[in-house]
Amino acid sequence: MNVNTGKAAGWRGVIDRYSEFLPVTDQTPVVTLLEGNTPLVPVPRFAAAIGAKVELFLKCEGLNPTCSFKDRGMTLAVSKAVEKGAQVIVCASTGNTSASAAAYAARAGIKCVVLLPEGNVALGKLAQALIYGAETVEVRGGFDAALNIVRELGLTGLVEVVNSVNPYRIEGQKTAAFEICDALGDAPDFHFLPVGNAGNITANWKGYREYHAAEKSDTLPKMFGWQAAGAAPIVDGHPIDNPQSVATAIRIGNPASWQGATSAVQESAGSIGKVSDDEILHAYQLLARTEGVFVEPASAAPLAGLIRCVKLDQIPAGSIIVATMTGHGLKDPDIAIKQAGVTPKRAEATLESVRAAIGL
Ligand code: AN7
């Protein structure tokens, strides 16, 4: 079967689609799982529920091959690693980077080593690293300590680091901004997204600027980044030793792309704020119930931030807002079950018993 015809024709991943903006040549061996091309979903019921008179769209990055935005950067980082002959890639991760690295390494037929903060990685993400066959090491410490070890491992020259300190990660991730502009016909007025290691806010802003410079869009958005209150080094102005949040993805105390985040916010006249775990979980559940969109807790941070901005009347009516939903809700089933706060009702396998259980 020719995979370039029939059902498989069309989308061939972000490197194929946006190669003119990426550091690739005809010689680059493209390692892809056909990531990108994610839906930009309008969510008017959620906007109404929070009293926002805006046009709100969610860039649903949980619909990538490993269910997070990380695949955009990983396709490029792994392709470039293979191009230069690397045999082993390595990363530290709160879970999504490791899931993505493990998948793309499997796809490329190379080895992958992931360092995870012990006890603080959501179940779905751990399952991914293990099933894709990555050498998985739980480190007794947080993400920041694990990233320091990975940086040192990189200096040995024996492995290729695929954390976002690898510039190809940022290059690949900027394609999300291209897709948003292509879908809307221009940049939105505001772009809201969660901030952990700060690679994604850096990447999206780079994407908007490059598209604008190439005259593919006429405007630039204001970048609004959101950290979890217990893990908000950029907002608080100093690294956090023991970051805490229900949103384990963004439990990061010393972001690698701190400077990139600060520049994005300053250059775009945006801001970085912090939201509490309660605010995150409220937005998380409200989104699921008003729109049927299930994201992981970290992705709800920008929605919690939007709720706050609307209350403070900081968003002009009629604004076009995009919020990045960075990861799928199924990544972290434990939190969903806990937050829902109910267990299934029980019934005998009879009509009467089920009718009694549901009160119908
Ligand atoms: C769902 O996987 O850092 O600010 O090691 O998984 O670019 O770090 C994950 C980060 C937001 C923050 N939402 O993005 C990792 C990791 C989700 C995430 C972020 C992450 P950055």
3D structure, described in words:
- This protein has 15 helices and ten strands.
- Mean pLDDT is 97; it is low at 1-5.
- The protein is α/β, with parallel strands linked by helices and 360 residues long.
- The protein is globular, with a radius of gyration of 20 Å.
- Helix 3 crosses helix 7, helix 7 crosses helix 9 and helix 12 (277-291) packs across helix 13 (297-311).
- It has helices spanning 14-17, 44-49, 70-83, 96-108, 123-131, 143-155, 167-173, 175-184, 199-213, 233-236, 258-268, 277-291, 297-311, 333-340, 351-358; strands spanning 40-42, 55-60, 88-92, 111-117, 135-139, 160-161, 190-194, 222-228, 271-275, 320-325.
- The strands form two sheets. The chain has a six-stranded mixed β-sheet, sandwiched between helices.
- Bound molecules: ligand AN7.
- Residues 68, 93-97, 194-200, 249-250, 296, 298-299, 326-327 line the site of ligand AN7.
Q: Which oligomeric state applies?
A: single chain
Q: Give the integer mean of the pLDDT values.
A: 97
> Terminal Cα separation, in Å?
52 Å
**What kind of sheet is the major sheet?**
6 strands, mixed
- The stretches of 5 or more residues where confidence is low (pLDDT under 50) are 1-5
Integer-rounded radius of gyration: 20 Å
Tell me which ligands are bound: ligand AN7
Helix proportion range: 40-55%
- Basic shape: globular
H/E order of the elements?
A: HEHEHEHEHEHEHHEHEHHEHHEHH
Structural class: alpha/beta
Adjacency order of strands in the biggest sheet? 1-2-10-7-8-9
Tell me how many strands there are: 10
Strand residue content? 5-15%
